[in-house]
Amino acid sequence: MSELRDLYQELILDHNKNPRNFREMAEATHQADGHNPLCGDRIRIYLKVVDDRIADVTFKGSGCAISQSSASLMTTFLKGKTVFEARELFQHFHDLVTGHPVSPEKLAELGKLAVFEGVQEFPTRVKCASLAWHTLVSALEGDSDLTTTE
Question: Is the pLDDT of residue 6 over 80?
């Protein structure tokens, strides 16, 4: 189990140091801002949705390693998914990090995102891991209010 935990930590650190899809997107069809006042994380999610499919998703922001790596992994995972699939994945991810039961099938669907399962043991870190996801939902809904984890 220690080797698996080390691998997960490496994945989180890698996505924090070298975030994927970390850029503004001028052609975004949707965007939203998020803030986690407890940790100070700030994020803006950019989406390009074409024919109800996420053609591109990027982010900009700053924050702790968990929030930045969660956003990075989320963006790599959601490209090409439908809006419906993205909403379903949000729910599975949220269940995972908040300690709600996740079936083996749903866990398999989450792939590398399962790395965040351990944050459920640290309630303040749940907000860090889920900020990008809550902001994603706000973007999809066209909500221009600042998304917060409070």
Answer: no
Mean pLDDT, rounded, for 113-120: 90
Q: Does domain 2-148 have CATH number 3.40.50.150?
A: no
Q: Cα(39)–Cα(88) distance, rounded to whole angstroms? A: 26
- Phi, psi (degrees; rounded to nearest 5) at 31: -160, 155
> Could you give phi then psi for residue 61, rounded to 5 degrees?
155, -175
Q: Where are the domains of the chain?
A: 2-148
pTM here?
0.93
- Residue 72: count other Cβ atoms within 10 Å of its Cβ: 22
Cα 12 to Cα 118: distance, rounded to the nearest angstrom: 12
Average confidence (pLDDT) over 9-27 = 94
Return mean pLDDT, the chain. Answer: 93
Q: Rounded CA gap, 147 and 82, in Å?
A: 22
